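lol ok so funny story. i was supposed to be doing the assay writeup but got distracted and ended up predicting the structure for this chain instead. priorities right. anyway since i did it might as well share w the group, maybe its usefull for someone
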Amino acid sequence: MGALSPLDPSSFSRPELAIIRHISLALNVDFEKRVLNGEATLTFDVLKDIDDLILDASNLNIHSIESEGGSQLQYKLGENVPNFGSKLTILLPKQATIDERLKIKIKYTTDPSASALQWLDAAQTSGKKHPYMFSQCQPIHARSILPCQDTPAVKFTYDAEVTAPEEFTVLMSALRGEVRGSKTTFKQPMPLPSYLVAIAVGVLESRTLGPRSKVWSEKEEIERSVWEFAETEKYLQAAERLCGPYEWTQYDLLVLPPSFPYGGMENPCLTFVTPTLLAGDRSQADVIVHEIMHSWTGNLVTNRNFEHFWLNEGFTVYLERKVAASLINDTNEAKRSRDFHSLLGLQELSETIELFGPSNALTKLVVDLDGVHPDDSFSRVPYEKGSLFLRYLEDLMGGPEVFDDFLRSYLTKFRKQSLDTDQFKAYLMDYFKNDDRLQNVDWQAWLDKSGMPPIIPDYDTTMTKEIVALVAKLDSPKVKFSYGDVKKFTPHQMIHFLQQLLERPPMSLEHVRSMGKAYKVDNSKNTEIQYRWLRLCVKSKDDSKLSEVFNFVNGNGRMKYVRPLYRDLYAWEAVRDQAIDNFLKNEKNMMHVSAYTLRKDLHLSVTSV
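and the output, tada:
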């Protein structure tokens, strides 16, 4: 299968002919049938003379399509392409001409298995009394909850009225309006791509974090959430100092149930986060800073399609580390901290490339997605290789004093737009047209070559020296473990230490058990530490830890943790069948993207949608 359309290999739509500018949604949430009954009114600007409109739809039951005047329109729903959905072609009664504005209304119902939605039974929630529903549309799952041009090349404003049982709270990636009985209204005046349309419906509570922020969660998590995210306003202000004003008005957080597959999702006005961030020590604040930075890179300035995903994620990781460092008063300590987190990211990049294989085309910074689902290309590569490329450019051009001005100029230039790598490169070259240092950049090696980046920045390794020394100590056959070895480690130093051990040959069973006890990692409540520790146990074939490992993967949907653990279990032949059985038993509790990718990791047939 090749590209589905000229602008985006993953979308049937043709926004170069007619482009959506606004969507009005009316949604009725049916927990019993696990569907949304929807009415979407789409407003198009016609860019070329056309006889039809082409949209993306995935397993939608279309009831009717009508023009602005109310007359029924003929339409054709094409054959379903597994995991990409169908081409929805709407025939116009007469040719629409350039500069014309069209409105059409589509009445439809989603499928109970819509890939963007997870419907949780009451038993899967913290409160155990009420069901819960939430969405995850990135990368190309919005087409399963509304007919649209499901490509990030298209940005539109939207409003919505959602009907749900009165005891439920409805939240969306928009400014919340009135709540009257069972109806809640929303308005999003900022243009956004379809993957940022988001909805969550549950019995929720909220607390105020700051002048423009609330945190939402089930009652059982609300107090922990308030404490963990109390510094949100401080992060927002630091981000504004680097990137300019925050334009989305409200910045709320929603702590979702554990099955949410990502650390966070940058839905505008309402970041979705995993409960694994509730570490009790604010050590995972970098995830919140990351999602805040998406308010500029990703949400305000967006990749044109997911072949250029690094423009979203590489920029965001790069900015996240700059902003997090800016919160440290001591300049030297700030640089050390930024470089330390970059080194941890480099470790994750190295492991990813080893997993994929250094010649795998999906380890390029700019990938070719013709016939490849964006979910299959998802990895740490666009995040870390992209961030590293920007750090290289920053160092090359004279450091933050020079490059920060370029960043602000770039964000202003492409505000509310979508772009590709060629446009980024052209703007960079033009901005620095009087500086010949850019002639030293090997663009082909950075953008189009598989494997590790051609150049690694000269990072400050001060914060890793104790870790390197401790790892070297472990090579002694008579090593003795003492809590004093790690007593002064920050949570991130412990994470770095465990990550280094994962890159080495497995430790002996005796050593891994002694270390876990002495270093107090075998009872850590920090999931970043916990997950790496459990991976070390699996790699050392510690069968006494298997029930703990299965409990962890069954109670946690975050793919960053669950996929590596399942791959490690699969590699352990003696427990491979047990791992597969455990997955199959729990697959029904997973979101589509988790089940889809884990099936591939476990070499099982992939379920299509």
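The chain has a mean pLDDT of 97. DSSP finds 18 helices and 21 strands in the chain.
back to the writeup now i swear
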